[in-house]
Design goal:
With about 250 residues, this protein is of the alpha/beta class. It has a single domain (about 35-245), classed as 3-Layer(aba) Sandwich (Rossmann fold). Helices cover about 35% and strands about 20% of the residues. It has helices at about 10-25, 25-30, 35-50, 70-75, 85-95, 130-140, 160-170, 185-190, 210, 235-240; strands spanning about 60, 80-85, 100-105, 115-120, 145-155, 195-200, 215-225. The chain has a seven-stranded mixed beta sheet with strand order 3-2-1-4-5-7-6. Strand 2, helix 5 (about 85-95) and strand 3 (about 100-105) form a beta-alpha-beta unit.
Length: about 250
């Protein structure tokens, strides 16, 4: 019997996450690793991190599942590692990317040494309430000085968030009770290690048709050294804002 989320301690959260995503691994992988989903990621990552020299960078695909983001960075010459709390997801990752290391661990305590990575990419912090700030601290520890975080999450405060809240609450086949959207301002305000370089909001027009039921928003690239860079906005992104994002 699934416990109520408000009473979850960190150990309970990790146990529930591990058990749930072990049981759902194959279905989850088929959904998130579809050709359309991967094509959309590639387009989006080109827009946001295409200005970076990714070749030879050490990248962590955090909370990686079967490695939905890994293929993009491998394709650009990066040295990629994975991390996920689900052993079953890690096994899918190993089979798909035998050249990559993967750590079956919690994002709250990954097991990787300090300053291991140039870039961390994550799109699953909304699974971690109420421990999202703890995850940000762990990610900061993993990054080298001047490293970057690519954070892509469903965003609170949008029009569609009302529908999503009902969906999360009613559909326990697909969501654990602690899952909720992310408030970017609150998250970043509480994790002072990072500064925003650029941000993207998506949905309505350009997200939902590609990800079907998996609608994401608030793509942010952050840095702890505030490098000077400008990421060009896409035409579709210019039609979106946080309140309209998915």
């Amino acid at each position: 019997m699934m416990k109520q989320a408000p009473s979850w301690c960190r150990e309970t959260l990790e146990s529930e996450q591990r058990s749930y995503y072990n049981s759902l691994a194959a279905i989850y992988d088929r959904h998130y690793h579809s050709d359309l989903a991967n094509a959309y990621r590639a387009w989006l990552y080109d827009d946001v991190v295409g200005h970076l020299e990714l070749a030879k960078l050490k990248v962590l695909d955090a909370m990686c599942g079967g490695g939905e983001s890994t293929s993009y960075f491998l394709g650009h010459g990066a040295v990629v590692s994975g991390q996920d709390i689900s052993q079953a997801q890690c096994e899918l990752y190993r089979r798909r990317y035998p050249q990559c290391a993967v750590e079956p661990s919690s994002i709250l305590n990954t097991g990787y040494p300090d300053a291991s990575f140039d870039l961390v990419v994550v799109e699953s912090l909304h699974h971690l309430h109420p421990y999202t700030i703890d995850a940000m601290h762990e990610i900061s520890r993993l990054l080298k000085p001047g490293g970057h975080l690519l954070l892509w999450e469903p965003c609170s405060g949008s029009i569609t968030d009302l529908a999503r809240k009902a969906w999360y609450r009613l559909d326990r086949r697909c969501f654990l009770p602690n899952e909720a959207t992310i408030n970017p301002a609150k998250l970043l305000g509480a994790s002072s290690e990072f500064e925003i370089i650029s941000e993207r909001y998506g949905g309505i027009l350009n997200f939902s048709s590609f990800f079907r039921a998996c609608i994401f928003a608030s793509l942010r690239i952050l840095s702890d050294t505030m490098p000077q860079c400008v990421c060009p906005s896409s035409i579709m992104n210019s039609l979106n804002s946080r309140i309209r994002a998915c």
